[in-house]
Amino acid sequence: MSRNLTTNKLTDQLARLNDVLCAVNTLNWDARTQMPAGGATTRGQQIATLMGLARSMIIDPAMQAAVDEAGDDPSASVAQEAIDYHRRLPAELLKAQSESATVAGAAWAKARASSDFSLFQPHLEKVVDLARQSADALGYEKHPYDPMVRIYEPGETAASLSCFFDELRSGILPILDTARGRPVPRTDFLYRHYPQAGQQAFATGTAQSLGFDFERGRLDTTVHPFEVSFTRNDVRITSRWPEQYLPMSIFGSIHEVGHALYEQGIAPELTRSAFATDMIGLYAVGGTSFGMHESQSRLYENHVGRSAPFWEKHYVRLRDTFPDQLRDVSVDEFLAAVNRVEPGAIRVEADELSYDLHIMLRVKIEMGLMDGSLSVADIPDVWREAMHNDLGVAIDDDANGCLQDVHWSSGYLGSFPTYTIGNATAAQLMAHLDEQSPQIRHALNSADTAPLNEALTEKVWQWGRRKTRAQILEASGLKANDASPYLAYLKGKFS
């Protein structure tokens, strides 16, 4: 068989796998935006069927044969890694995890509603036990957390994250202490009544101005905002519109636009390929890792969306959208309010400076759960102590403490580090662009993001999953998990 025909055989296998996973994405998007409540049970069954089919396609002898015949084709090594990964996980374990997630999710919702961690505790103990079994099946050299993190951020380990987080923590705490000593700016106007229709209109205009292509995407309403793609040609973003708190929709939408620009910027030739498919996590996505994806969303949300030049251009449009609500608010007052430092209990509402301390707490707990140094029963006390010591925040109930996130009930141990990795990577990229391409900052000072989009397309987006996060950074002379640019950015903004 010729090399061309062999490659086409593997290419076809991978394209069909991507199709199945795009169908999963479509069903998930619909479930979170359009589906009636009565469809939840059968929708779960439909998604489970397709996910099982995707895994079966990967471990099918036909996929292995196509890989063997493809030789040194780059797609072959990606596929082989996925085959080896999925073969190591017993089908019985995957079934148990799927069943556990359903039960644990319901238990978490009940426990959160009644603010009683004890209702969730036995279910989380089961989740942790299954996660440890997965780690044992996958194998690791030093820490059982390592294979969990690898699912979301290849190349990272418990050791690398601990070193990185220790450096960030020691740098952030003094900046936070300084910032908390300043007067809190006026924020009353953020809580006035902002009708949903106006918020949606403003978010749509903002997305367009940032470069989101509505010919290849759309914006919809959901409870928990997210971005998802069905190839680069169909990228969906969502937001929510709380009418008594304006910033949620503004910055949530910009955040999701950052994710979406990454997916829309993937090179067309990577469509339906191994380099637009997470074959380990069974997810159709062009971004190379969760951390790199988060870097793009945080870059647009914070470095662009919370900047003075951005609002010098867009505040007039916002005030025209809500003239009564913002009649007595200057652009400087608005900018100060949306950049205020005000530590609180809830991660998704955290200010830019204290956010990573929320992440570090969760990662510390996850590592302890995985290596057995922390029991599930100890989580509430550990949580309260850390929040008091790091942020000066008293946690009075479990709902606003260790029950606030859904991740653990779903078995997602290992994903939290990627949020802070994203923050640091965004700062690295922006510092690099400021040094190497000052014209980009010049354009941003006029709220023009076109040159930034072009640079990120060249350096990040176009590569899809063909390059790792570390390789993308190395190509620009940068090193993964370099905390210095991020700390310099935080210090410059908040000191």
From TrEMBL:
<feature type="binding site">
    <location>
        <position position="259"/>
    </location>
    <ligand>
        <name>Zn(2+)</name>
    </ligand>
</feature>
<keyword id="KW-0645">Protease</keyword>
<dbReference type="GO" id="GO:0046872">
    <property type="term" value="F:metal ion binding"/>
</dbReference>
<dbReference type="Pfam" id="PF02074">
    <property type="entry name" value="Peptidase_M32"/>
</dbReference>
<keyword id="KW-0482">Metalloprotease</keyword>
<comment type="function">
    <text>Broad specificity carboxypetidase that releases amino acids sequentially from the C-terminus, including neutral, aromatic, polar and basic residues.</text>
</comment>
<dbReference type="GO" id="GO:0006508">
    <property type="term" value="P:proteolysis"/>
</dbReference>
<protein>
    <recommendedName>
        <fullName>Metal-dependent carboxypeptidase</fullName>
        <ecNumber>3.4.17.19</ecNumber>
    </recommendedName>
</protein>
<feature type="active site" description="Proton donor/acceptor">
    <location>
        <position position="256"/>
    </location>
</feature>
<keyword id="KW-0378">Hydrolase</keyword>
<feature type="binding site">
    <location>
        <position position="255"/>
    </location>
    <ligand>
        <name>Zn(2+)</name>
    </ligand>
</feature>
<keyword id="KW-0121">Carboxypeptidase</keyword>
<feature type="binding site">
    <location>
        <position position="294"/>
    </location>
    <ligand>
        <name>Zn(2+)</name>
    </ligand>
</feature>
<keyword id="KW-0862">Zinc</keyword>
<comment type="similarity">
    <text>Belongs to the peptidase M32 family.</text>
</comment>
<dbReference type="InterPro" id="IPR001333">
    <property type="entry name" value="Peptidase_M32_Taq"/>
</dbReference>
<dbReference type="GO" id="GO:0004181">
    <property type="term" value="F:metallocarboxypeptidase activity"/>
</dbReference>
<keyword id="KW-0479">Metal-binding</keyword>
